Each structure stands twice: as structure tokens, then as C-alpha cells.
């Protein structure tokens, strides 16, 4: 298989971009504008594939109307989820294949130098994925780093909260600024923006579409690690990310919680999966008593199969963006 070319050596890496959309007209133009300027002297931007989950706003018109960017649109015909969108986008890439694929949410905006810096990270031996530093619209840190899901971490997070669990080094989510300042290996990272080596694309196969939304990147990156590939976090590559709505929408909070348990049980077995589920239920119950609006429906979904989300909203019934948190 071909090696990823090294920026700065005169051999420019070839990078394709896959953007997954769902009613994303308010953010897509800014996203594609940042991609347009990302193909600098050190990187060849081969093509941009916009995969649309049956948007009913102006998303398709915006994507079709881009004249100065190699954009192609793939219409899925239904809201099939983030993983399905990525798989469709990768399958639609033109031959010859690129050196890497940038998987991108439509509410992301690449800051200057981000793509070249991500591409440099793929040169490291064994690295299959490079993740950027994500920032909010005001430039503040958007926590990106994650630890492997663990029963200990779930219990501590439930009883003490995520921030204290992070300080103790067991929480799944890393909130602190200091770790986000250092380039390093990561167990996994949020999937809003990832540069994936084509060698890993071939080795790992498609993303798992059963997760619909949330935990699909966890599954993919842990599966990559099982195959010997490293996820590398590069803080000097900065991407602005508006962020998802799992913390305000009860149905998405429920889907997030159920998918976390599904993945943990798949990897650790039924008994430990049950313990993990109960730990999450305990934490959600505490937050529900504290008045967190999304906690009760998420807890109900963990306990009652009938309350679980099995498909994503279809426009025009709902018009929220499809976006990773």
C-alpha cells in the first residue's frame, strides 16, 4: 500500500474530504469556504464529497452551487446517520484513492494550516488517524480527548461528576486544558473532524452503521487500535466546531447513553455491560434529581427498550443538524 506523502518534502499528500450533512444550510457554506482555502502548497485537495441525509433546507443547493471547489453530492434519500454518511462518502471517492480522507462535520471550520498540520501527523509510524484541537466559536477549548470506556470511570463519573473523574485520571472525557496542549497518542477522540489514512480505511473497513449517531467514532477508533493503529492528537491543527445538541435534546441524550452501553457490552461482555449500564443509570438518576432535563429520558431509554431511539428524525418533521457533539 502507498505511504502517506510528507508535507515539506516536495511530494504533496493527496487528501479527499467527506462532509456529512442534514439540514446544514446555515453552516455548510462556511465549512466549504474553509476547505477551499485548506488546499495549500503542501497538500493536494483531490475532491470534496458532501453526503446528504435527505435535507429539506438549502443544503443541496449550496453544495451544488460551489463552482471553485471539486464538490460532488451523494444523496442518501433518508437520514441514515453519521456512519452511513461516512461510508457512502468514502465509497464515492474517485480512483486513484487519496492518501487520506478528512471526515468532517458541516459545522466545522478549518483554521489556517490545519489540514497541512494534520497531514504531517500521519507520517508518524503506525498512526492511522490524526485529530485536531477543536475550539468553540469564541476560541475556547472544546474537549476532544477521551479515555477508553471503563467500569471504574463510569462509576466515578456517576458519583463525583465528569470533571472530578478526569482529575482522578479515570473519567472517559478529558476536560482539562493541559492535556489538550500536548501532541500525543489518544485512546479515542470525538469524531467531528478526523484525518484518516487510506491504509487504515482499507484495513478497518466501513464504520459501523448500527450506531446511527454517537459512539460510532469510539467503535471505529478502538477497532483501529485493535488492529495496531494509533490515533494521534495534534493540538497545532485547530478546527472550529459549533457542536451538537445531545445536551439539550432528550432523544439525542438517550441515544448517546444507549450507544455507550451497547459498545461497552459488545467489547466487555454481558455481565460487565450490565454493571456499566447500572453505573450510567445511577449517574443519570442523580442528574435527574438535580433538574437536568435530558437525564430522565436517557435513564428511561437505558431501562426500557421501548423508549430507545431506533431511527433518526426525518425532515421536515424535525430540522436539527446532524452533528457530532
TrEMBL record:
Residues 17-147 form the Glycosyltransferase 2-like domain. Coiled coil: none annotated. InterPro entries: Glyco_trans_2-like (IPR001173), Nucleotide-diphossugar_trans (IPR029044). SUPFAM superfamilies: Nucleotide-diphospho-sugar transferases. This is Glycosyltransferase family 2 protein.
Amino acid at each position: 500500500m502507498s505511504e502517506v506523502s510528507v508535507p515539506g518534502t516536495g511530494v504533496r499528500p493527496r487528501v479527499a474530504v467527506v462532509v456529512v450533512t442534514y439540514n446544514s444550510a446555515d453552516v455548510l457554506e462556511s465549512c466549504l469556504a474553509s476547505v477551499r482555502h485548506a488546499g495549500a502548497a503542501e497538500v493536494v485537495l483531490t475532491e470534496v464529497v458532501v453526503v446528504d441525509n435527505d435535507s429539506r433546507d438549502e443544503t443541496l443547493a449550496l453544495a451544488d452551487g460551489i463552482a471553485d471547489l471539486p464538490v460532488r453530492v451523494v444523496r442518501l434519500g433518508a437520514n441514515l446517520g453519521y456512519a452511513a454518511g461516512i461510508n457512502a462518502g468514502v465509497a464515492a471517492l474517485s480512483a486513484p484513492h487519496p492518501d487520506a480522507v478528512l471526515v468532517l462535520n458541516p459545522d466545522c471550520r478549518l483554521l489556517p494550516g490545519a489540514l497541512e498540520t494534520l497531514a504531517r501527523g500521519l507520517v508518524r509510524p503506525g498512526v492511522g488517524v490524526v485529530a485536531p484541537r477543536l475550539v468553540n466559536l469564541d476560541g475556547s477549548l472544546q474537549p476532544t480527548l477521551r479515555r477508553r470506556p471503563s467500569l471504574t470511570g463510569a462509576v466515578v463519573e456517576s458519583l463525583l461528576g465528569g470533571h472530578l473523574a478526569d482529575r482522578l485520571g479515570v473519567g472517559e472525557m478529558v476536560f482539562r486544558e493541559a492535556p489538550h496542549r500536548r501532541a500525543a497518542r489518544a485512546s479515542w477522540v470525538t469524531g467531528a473532524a478526523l484525518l484518516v489514512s487510506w491504509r487504515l480505511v482499507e484495513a478497518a473497513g466501513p464504520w459501523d452503521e448500527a450506531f446511527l449517531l454517537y459512539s460510532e467514532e469510539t467503535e471505529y477508533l478502538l477497532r483501529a487500535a485493535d488492529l495496531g493503529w494509533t490515533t494521534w492528537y495534534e493540538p497545532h491543527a485547530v478546527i472550529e466546531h459549533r457542536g451538537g445538541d445531545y445536551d439539550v435534546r432528550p432523544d439525542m441524550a438517550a441515544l448517546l447513553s444507549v450507544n455507550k452501553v451497547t459498545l461497552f457490552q459488545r467489547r466487555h461482555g454481558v455481565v460487565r455491560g450490565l454493571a456499566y449500564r447500572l453505573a450510567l443509570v445511577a449517574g443519570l438518576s442523580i442528574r435527574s434529581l438535580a433538574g437536568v432535563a435530558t437525564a430522565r429520558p436517557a435513564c428511561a431509554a437505558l431501562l426500557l427498550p421501548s423508549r430507545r431511539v431506533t431511527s433518526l428524525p426525518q425532515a421536515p418533521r424535525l430540522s436539527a443538524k446532524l452533528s457530532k457533539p
